[in-house]
Predict the structure.
Amino acid sequence: MHTITQLILDNNVAFHPMMGNSYKLNKTGKEIIEYLKEGQSKDEIIKTLSEKYEISPDELFIDVGDFFAKLRIYGLQQ
Amino acid sequence: MKIAISGLNNTDNPAPGIPLAKSLKDEYELIGFSYDPNEPGDYMGLTSKNYLMPYPSLGFEELKNRLLHIKEQSGLDAIIPNLDAELPLYIKYQDEIEAMGIKLCLPSEENFELRNKNRLDTLSKRLQITYPKTFEIGSVEELKSVSEELDFPLMIKGNYYKAYMSQNLESAIENFYKISNEWGFPILVQEVVEGEEVNLVGVADGKGELKGAVGIKKLTTTDIGKIWTGITIHNEKLLNIAKEFAKQTGWKGPFELECMVNMNSIYLIEINPRFPAWVYFATAIGINLPKMVIEIMEGKEIEPQFDYPQNKMYVRYVDELVTDFSNFITLLSTKEL
């Protein structure tokens, strides 16, 4: 029922119009949400961020994984 | 058209009357029906006249005589009753009241009963909505046996008012007595469903069509669960439940749906047979549901309205006024102001 594509990004806040919930994001969190809305997978996002910020994919794997875990906790990802 | 509105309390447990008056005051002359001269709506200047009404427990004859007097004196054309305690009387005698030349927009007695908490499981099945497992009980022995079938935490609910969550049997028994001492029986024991509460206010025409609705999420509430801040939501499943409810039951008039939503399901928790006290939120964002009720009474054709802006925020706040104490005395002694 809750999907990432429904989130509306406004500044650094993501709003879920079906539930009325708002989530405060940092710059990277917002970027990840934007990539997810574009349809990128977790691995693709790690690759994109790795190339953009010149950080190794292994290092990003843990942080992006944590972010995905939070999305699941908030019911935004299955 | 002169319209009477009840539910003029606006303290820590606000009633829908004042939000209704705010929604209608620019187009209609309003009369206030009050049960207590302490109700703020008696002094807010939203109504041209205020009357103290007989308590519903006194029965229909008392109400009828009062309505006849008011109609003769003020030319009353319609009433929107807003309080749970008075609705059964207005619904039961709606034909008699209409015969007095006073319009109403209320559900049938059958529909009113259908949304009773102890019958919601049947209605939920008809509407194909999930309903939390619920048992109706009348004794502590039954509570003990039900608590063996359901896992804690459990909701202990009165049939009309109050609901408490209990983490163990001891607390469940305490809440059982707390509710039954105040509100009587039956008591309902319900499984706790995980999710977030969402609400919808709607108006249906009695012919199977939902004419308007607004969905909200309460962001903050008071200690007794009354909304303090809220936000508009667009939840298609919630709206579809409302449409299906109007279609299947032929509900007439205002109602409020209370649902729990989680990842996979939407659960129907309660249907209130009246406007909620936050109904002015809908008016302020362009869907004037109280006005729709008047138009249904008048038999006007109404275009359904479900389109409202998202991200609109509702903020309730405390206000105050000063009036002459003589107004209070007049209302108390003459039952009119």
